[in-house]
Design goal:
- This protein is an alpha+beta fold.
- The protein has 6 helices and 7 strands; from the N terminus they run E-E-H-H-H-E-E-E-H-E-H-E-H.
- It has a 7-stranded mixed β-sheet with strand order 2-3-4-5-6-1-7, sandwiched between helices.
- Helix 4 links the parallel strand 5 and strand 6.
Length: about 180
Amino acid sequence: MKYIPLAMVRDHMEHIPFFPCPDGYRIRTFVEGDERHWARIEMAAGEFSDQERALQRFAEHFGADPRGQRDRCFLLENQHGEAIGTASAWYGNFEEEERGRISWVGIVPAFQGKKLAKPLLSVVMARLARDHQKVYLTTQTTSYQAINLYLNFGFVPYPVRESCEEGWRLMEQVLQRKIL
């Protein structure tokens, strides 16, 4: 599939869907040292070629705010206490406006397709709602399953470049749903 960067927004935090964790799974906030789990998960999910690059990106993205890490970064654990997923309820400047930001959502491939992203996103959205009225995220056409999830959570496409329309048309075909 053609890789096209995309952005999505949610201009309100009303009616956030809630999905509980299945039995045996839990979501917790970060503690010191969890950046290694984050790096392993993101590498397994295909975002990085090795853990050192992942750790470097973690430090660039989250490193300046250790308190934010503990409050806004989440790990999904399986029944054995192994970290298998991650997502963050971060913040950023989007189109010259401070907004909440969903970032670095990743689940280890062996646990993908088990409806675990829904509870993880529920927790992230609830955290964002505490401090933000509007949120955004960036994604790409190759993450079409995540895009479908974001659409179901009330996010809508936001065109930031010319290629966005092509990307959203591709998503309509792949997901077999009207988006634009």
